[in-house]
Amino acid sequence: MFIHDLKIENFKGYNGHDNEFLFNIPDGTTEGSGLNIFVGENNSGKSTVFEVIEFLKDGSKKEIPDLINKSYPEDLAEHLSVEMTFTGSLEEVINAHVQNNKNAVFNARVYDVEGRSYFRVKRSSEDNVKNILFWNNENGSFSNSSGIDAPFKKFYDNNFIWADTNPNNEAKFGSTTICGSLLKEIASGHIHTDEYRAFSANFQRVFNDPQSELRQKISTVEDKVREVFSSQFGNANISFMFEELQVENFFKTISIMIDDGVNVPMGEKGHGMQRALALSLLQVYAEITCNIQGAGVVGKPFFLFIDEPEICLHPSGQQKLLEALMMISKTKQIFVTTHSPFMLSSPHLKNAGLFIFKKINNKNVVSRADTSPLFPWSPSWGEINYKAYNLSTVELHNELYGYLQEKNSCPNERAMEQWFEDQGVVKNKVWIKEFRGVAQAPADTTLQTFIRNHIHHPENVTMQNQKYSQQDLETSIAQMIQLVN
Q1: CATH no. for residue 339?
Q2: What is the model's pLDDT at position 446?
Q3: Phi-psi label, residue 85: left if phi above 0, alpha if psi -120 to 50, beta otherwise
């Protein structure tokens, strides 16, 4: 089961009702297929998407006035809502992870469109925001059936690694953490081994066999409780039955120790070391889970959200982390916010969902980078900088110049200059070549070639005092983008 889409209305910086996301979903084989990357300036709404998804699953301890968009007209400022649609093996997940007496309610809200199954939920301030609403595709409306809120919260797991919270939480072994999920993946198959069967038999012998020493001690308590109960309420047999714990419950008492000369629990180390370890666990999770063979067990859906993973990670660590996320995203859905060039310079990003966030007129505006790619190899780091941050860089200039040269079969500078002229580009710059350190005759040239020569020939002493400006770079790039399009 995966998150297919998300709709946000009047939540913090998301003004109005037209804020929709269509997410990448893992295809089971392609690295990056389940990876969704959010890029953009600060305060443009990247982390808010994480908050929305957390709010939708668990409700909120915050008051609606603290969450609602403040720039919306006053007469409509009391309403916010969020909707999310799931897709995939919905009925299998529901039957495996929703309590039996609520299965029918959940399954009744699964609907098919063009051979794919969907399940849609909503929280809205127009209703009780604490209640989750299920979409009824037959009558086209949302409603809350009695008793569905608690089962929905256990229906799937979100794991958030926030940029501004304690990463020590990620090294705990609860069911919704990386560590817990990692050990569950390993242990889920181990319960079928002879070793675990022997453990299970010993558990029953110690806690439930009438002949065990512990059981005989407990029986004295049972007898006394039975005697008191029978004297006051009537005859009844009272006994204590110990159910064997699920294997993942044994992990909750585990702690991680770090010995870098001083052996102490992870929580006593510095924030940077804690975050580095939490992200290292992700990489191990990727390696192990991709090699575990399924045993016919329907795992609980697990969605991973990482806010600015580059914090406290050196460049090579960021690149290795991206490789791990790529591997995990073949089968798991991952959401990442980042500003890092090392996280955004992989050729595999072509398979990922890259979302560009901007703040325009005090409203968060989001677009996908693949809606108007500049190159066959898009997205590139230079292209991302241009679209997300309005930054014109030499990297993008090089890409555009080289792409136009290749696309129009211009083998040299002379041919390229002629092609530019044919497109109406004016030669408004002068470039002086050097041959063995000797300046040659000045030549009129286009702005594009003037900048390209500066980038490629920093050894040219003659032209070092005649640099291009940032405005020149922006103008040249804008003109080449027009020519590409």
Answers
A1: 3.40.50.300
A2: 97
A3: beta
